[in-house]
Amino acid sequence: MPKIVSLSSLSRSKYDKLKKKFSCTNEDLHTHIKQFAYNHQKEGLFQTYFFVDDEENYLAYISVAIATIENTDVQDKIDIPKSIKYSIPSLKVTRLCVFDGNHRRGIGQILMAFVNILAVIQQNKIGCRAIIVDSKDEAIKFYENMGFIEINKEESSKTTFMVIDILKPSELKESNGTILGMKDFCEEYNLNELIAILDKL
Q1: Mind listing the pLDDT tens digit for each residue in 120-133?
Q2: Which whole-number Å values give the CA distances from 148 to 8, 175, 181, 186, in the listed order?
C-alpha cells in the first residue's frame, strides 16, 4: 500500500541510509533533501513529507511552511473581499521533487492533493485561505494544470509566484463530498491521523 510519511517519523540513522538513494537532477532540490531537510524539520522551519510505494521505495518529497500573502497582490485571483487590508494566511509549498525515474506517474499530483488537505486542516485550526508557491520555470505548467494562477515574476528572479484558492469553511460544509473525498484519500495513503481531524470539520 503506498503511503505518505513525514520526515519527522524517521530516525536520523534511517534517514541517512535512505537519502543515499535519493536522486534528483535539479541541484537545488537535490541539495535540500540531502543536506538541509532533516535539520530544517528538526528546527521547526519546514515540514517535509515523502511519497513511499508498496515496496518501501521513497519516490518523491514535498516541503511546506506557513506563510502570508498581501490581499493587494492576489485581488481578483482568490475569493477574498477587497475590503480586507491585512495579510492573508496561506500554506506555502517550498519544494516539490519527484526523484529521477519516477516522473509522469501522477506522484506530484498526489502530493499536491495531500497539501490541499493540510491547508484545509490548517484553516480549521489557525486560518488559511490559499496555497502558494514560487515555481521554477519548468514547473509552471504543472502548477497551472493543478489550478494555480500566476501572480508575478520579478525580472531578477528565477521563480514565478503562483496561488490557488482553497474552499472556505462554509463551502466545505455545503460540499460534504469534498470532505469524504479527502478522507478516502487519507485512507488510501495511510494518513489515519488526518481522518480523525477531518471527521471534526
Answers
A1: 999 999 999 999 99
A2: 28, 21, 20, 23
